[in-house]
Amino acid sequence: MRPFSNKAIIQVELIKKKKPDGTKMEEPNQEGLVLESNIKGINKNDTVLFNFFGAVNIEKLQTKNSLTLIVEAEDIYAII
Q1: Quick one: 67 exposed, middle or buried, by C-beta within 10 A (0-12, 13-18, 19+)?
Q2: Minimal CA–CA distance to 72: which of 31, 39, 36?
Q3: What is the largest CA-CA distance in the chain?
């Protein structure tokens, strides 16, 4: 899979959290591993900090512990 234009495909782990009332929930991590990139300066295997709400989830590649997302360049804030 290769992204078009100024986008990257990022894999994000889901973090398990417990609410004060005891219910369990999963939240995506704000850091993700770049699987493929068409953005200048961001390479495969870079770890990036990004805006989750600007991303598109690829449900076909979703697993129990992670999400695969397509993220635009403007929603990637830093390479870690």
Answers
A1: buried
A2: 39
A3: 45
12 exposure class (CB count in 10 Å sphere: 0-12, 13-18, 19+): buried
- Within a domain: residue 1? no
Q: How many CB atoms lie within 10 A of CB 5?
A: 8
Closest CA to 29 of 6, 55, 60, 8: 55
What value does the mean pLDDT take over residues 45-71? Answer: 95
Q: How many CB atoms lie within 10 A of CB 1?
A: 10
What is the residue range of 62's domain? Answer: 7-79
- Comparing C-alpha atoms, which of 46, 49, 31, 40 is closest to residue 7? 40
Domain count, the chain: 1
Question: Does 15 map to a domain?
Answer: yes
What is the predicted pLDDT for the residue at 69? 97
Residue 2 included in any domain: no
